[in-house]
Amino acid sequence: MTQWWYNHKTGEVEEGPQSLGVDRDGPFDTREQAERAPQIVAERARAWSKEESEDWKSS
I need a labelling partner for 26 at 20 to 30 A (CA). Which of 2, 10, 17, 54 fits? Predict the structure, then answer.
């Protein structure tokens, strides 16, 4: 199965890991998901931030 990566340094989608791990996000199952990597990462960061904030409130 092919995996796709988003290179956030170049803004390019890569088929398979081609660049340094520090420069890429993934793996993604489809090219379309990899193309949306910046949005997916931002959505996950917001969710984690909200979850962490709720954890602090309940402590």
Answer: 54
Coil, helix or strand at residue 53: helix
The strand ranges marked E within 1-59 are: 4-7, 12-15, 24-28
Of 25, 30, 52, 21, residue with least CA distance to 40: 25
Under 8 Å between Cβ of 36 and 17:
no
Which tens digit of pLDDT belongs to each residue from 12-22?
A: 999 999 999 99
pLDDT tens digits, one per residue of 44-58? 999 999 888 887 877
Tokens of residue 33, six digits: 């998901």
